[in-house]
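Contributing new records

If you add data, match the layout below exactly. Sequence lines come first and carry their own label; structure lines follow with theirs. Keep one chain per record. Anything else will be rejected by the validation script.
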Amino acid sequence: MRYNLLSLLLLTMCCMFAACSNDDSDIDEPQYDKHAPHTLLMYLNADSNLSSDLQTNSTDAQKAIKDSLNAGALNLVVFHDYRIPKLYWVHKNSKNELDTVPLKEYTSAVDACSKEVFKEVLDITFNQNFKDSKFKGLVFGGHALGWTPSKNYNDQDAHTRQIGQDNQTGVSGHTGYMELWDFCDALKETHTKLTYLLFDACNMGNIEVAYQLRGLTDYMVGAPTEINGRGFPYKTVIKQLGSCTNESQFERALDECIDSYYSEWTKSFGAVISLID
């Protein structure tokens, strides 16, 4: 009888510890739904004089996720390279609050305009974490020269097919730019076929850039001239893109993104944006 009572006591204690363990797990480790049909990566080159503008863009995009009734249909991933970069997923929880889930922890500066870093971020986003997303979008924010002859610029080191600019010395020991063909090769080598690509960067909405990107994206949005001010109004743009639940809706949503840009900068000279199918 004594052994039976001891066995019963041990069994009861095990059940109690197991129950406590399960309760703690439910509280401390919330389950995030990564299976939304649409993933958007914002790749922000903020180690430049655009740092405050790109921070505003990131903040506005996250606020749009919080305010959107359809936020569950869109995974928003942000790579914000300012000094020490951050790569995280923005998720609206059941309390209508935003959680930021780190996808990679960085401890030092990186060369965000290197092909290797861009490839890694693409891979972490579209191959490791959100590989099941049917629709894949990319916003590239920063400086760019597109396909501009360097003779128009005083800088002797100006690249003629430059995208991005990183003024923070990274692990390679130098600052730099990304060439357009490295940008395209990163997409190819990670097998990333985009539904749309939005360049929040100057001089990227031209036919030469579109030619380089052939087969890599269904739609491309960009300015053949300079981008005005902070660029696109992301409080509106994210809601417009986040409302898309099937392929046929993206062209309309991208048109609306352009309309939002024009509305934001209606009094500015030279506000020109192209949508290329």
